[in-house]
Amino acid sequence: MASSLHLGLAAIPVRGIESRKGVQGGSPCVAGTRIPVWVLEDYRRLGKSDAELLEMYPSLRAENLAAAWEFVRLNTNLVDEQIRENEQ
User: Fold this and answer.
1) Residue 8: its pLDDT value, please?
2) Is the pLDDT score of 78 beyond 90?
3) Count of C-beta atoms within a 10 Å radius of residue 70
4) pLDDT class for 88, splitting at 50, 70, 90?
């Protein structure tokens, strides 16, 4: 899996979201998990509600999703690119 971070798209940091080398290709993830923000956003764009996502990912809490949505708001281009990369 390629990471947009390597394409020169720098992420605006958000508390509760972290990028770690060697974890999900460096993609921004919910802190302490291996759940990439782009995956959550892709599900949201496909119509999944927060409640459905919390059922799908029982380790997540509402505040984790709030951090993810803030990250998407501030880093839309990066998340869009990660979704495109992973559709291929």
Assistant:
1) 56
2) yes
3) 16
4) confident
What is the residue range of 77's domain?
4-87
pTM of the model: 0.89
Question: Per-residue pLDDT tens for 29-53?
Answer: 999 999 999 999 999 999 999 999 9
Q: Which region, left, alpha or beta, applies to residue 34 given φ > 0 means left and ψ of -120 to 50 means alpha?
A: alpha
Measured CA angle at 60 (ends 56, 70), to 5 deg: 110
Into how many domains does the chain fold? 1
DSSP string, the chain: ---GGGGT-PPPP-TTEE--TTSGGG--EETTSS-BHHHHHHHHHTT--HHHHHHH-TT--HHHHHHHHHHHHH-HHHHHHHHHHHH-
Which CATH number covers residue 9?
A: 1.10.10.10
